[in-house]
Amino acid sequence: MKPQSRYNIVIIGGGPAGLAAAVAAKKAGEESILIIEREAELGGILNQCIHNGFGLHTFGEELTGPEYAQKYIDMVENEGIEYVLSTTVINIDGNKTITAVSRENGLMQIDAKAIVLAMGCRERPRGSLRIPGFNPAGIFSAGTAQKLVNIDGYMPGRTVVILGSGDIGLIMARRMTLEGANVKLVAELMPFSGGLNRNIVQCLNDYNIPLKLSHTVVDIDGKERLRGITLAQVDENLRPIAGTEEYVECDTLLLSVGLIPENELSKQIGVELSGKTNGPLVNERLETNVGGVFACGNVLHVHDLVDYVSEEAEAAGRNAAEYAAGRAGDSRQNEIDIVPEGMVRYTVPVRIDLERADEKTVVRFRVADKIPGGVIHASVEKNGERKEILRRKKRILAPGEMEQILLKKEDILGAERIIISAGTSAGISAGTDEKAGATK
């Protein structure tokens, strides 16, 4: 299919975020929508995530990644939403003109009234780790190994070490074990895991795979093919401790060392990015500083659950439809800042218009460290005075699990700024457990 030269909404990315945004925009009354996807199929990363655990929040049933994606693909098809595959966006200019290229259609220019950025994220490469040694065969990112095993039908190796305890690394520890590999250990630089606790239990503990916290790879042995790695413990400054080195024989090293939102296109159009998430800074409409350009999913900030990606993307799609129809306006005069404090690393959104906001606004964030007996609270500042509007106790707060709260409009009207913070229960004065509707 050759796309038209003009659409009201163009969505860049046909993964879970892009699909959900498109469906929501169509249900909001928008007819002129195009999804641009660079891969040969819709569905994004979900196509290679064949494990279950998806969809409990969105569909009320436990699905595999491809099953979850197919539900949204079916919605796109049933709604008659246009999409192009194997098409790469190479430029977006300040007039929202998108330049894309494909083998089938060649070079194309498409004008849009509103754009939804839903490009997802990529894995951090080995080069960013600065591990000494050659670059032998047998070193893969965890996501690449997942595609090789689940889609292409290849085994990367038989004796495996995994560096990084993000969710992809934990899931691949189990997957490689089920395929017959000997996963010797998972090493994590930080003193806590970067993945969900349920994945630690189901993917490591259930298979007796050791998790070595505060450890990293300091040397790679092998020139043509990986023969082993040297592991070392790190101190509180994350530097290797001399004398703790341990050699581990293996033919495969999988790297699960972080995800980077794909924001090269965002930079081209002048979108302001966060130094914490590497994703766009957005207001409560998920609109960037560039009017009519919205962001959602892992291009905005890395999520734990695809259900939250879909929820966020649906909001972006609805807001893009409002903008394209001329019903949203472009005034930011009434926006105030949402400020992270204490152990809160960042918030999404970072700004909110008190008049324009819905009756409840979802704010998502992560903490910087593991906090047993943690407390989340939100405050507003009015006339130089701070008033707490929400307090919520948690058995544990962890960087690997994204948190979210709901701010009620009635609680924030008249505020000069909103502060979201987290800490230990001992470090925060007593108060009610929950004063505004918080949800996880």
List keywords for this structure.
440 residues; seven-stranded mixed β-sheet; disordered C terminus; five-stranded parallel β-sheet; FAD/NAD(P)-binding domain; Immunoglobulin-like; alpha/beta; 3 domains; 27 strands
Helix content: 10-25%
The tally of domains stands at 3
> Major sheet, described briefly?
7 strands, mixed
CATH topology of the largest domain: FAD/NAD(P)-binding domain
Our count of helices gives 8
Cα-atom Rg, whole angstroms? 23 Å
The CATH architecture of the largest domain comes to 3-Layer(bba) Sandwich
Average pLDDT, all residues: 93
Any idea of the CATH class of the largest domain? Answer: Alpha Beta
**What would you give as the CATH superfamily of the largest domain?**
FAD/NAD(P)-binding domain
Secondary structure class reads alpha/beta
Shape: globular
Question: Which oligomerization state do the chains in this entry correspond to?
Answer: single chain
Terminal CA distance: 41 Å
Q: pLDDT under 50 segments (min length 5)?
A: 429-440
Strand content: 35-45%
Number of strands: 27
Explain what the structure shows.
This protein is an alpha/beta fold and 440 residues long. It folds into three domains: 6-122 and 260-324, 3-Layer(bba) Sandwich (FAD/NAD(P)-binding domain); 125-257, FAD/NAD(P)-binding domain; 335-427, Immunoglobulin-like (Sandwich). Helices cover 20% and strands 35% of the residues. The chain is built from eight helices and 27 strands. It has helices at 16-27, 65-79, 142-152, 167-178, 197-204, 264-268, 306-324, 409-412, and strands spanning 6-12, 33-36, 52-54, 63-64, 82-84, 87-92, 97-102, 106-117, 121-123, 139-141, 159-163, 182-188, 211-213, 215-221, 228-233, 246-249, 252-255, 259-261, 293-295, 335-342, 344-348, 351-353, 360-367, 371-382, 385-397, 403-408, 417-424. The strands form seven sheets. Strands 1, 2, 5, 6, 7, 8 and 19 form a seven-stranded mixed beta sheet that branches. Strands 10-17-11-12-13 form a five-stranded parallel beta sheet. A five-stranded mixed beta sheet has the order 22-20-27-24-25, with no helix packed on it. Strand 6 and strand 7 form a beta hairpin. Helix 1 packs parallel to helix 2. The longest helix is centred in the last third of the chain and has 19 residues, at 306-324. Mean pLDDT is 93; it is low at 429-440.
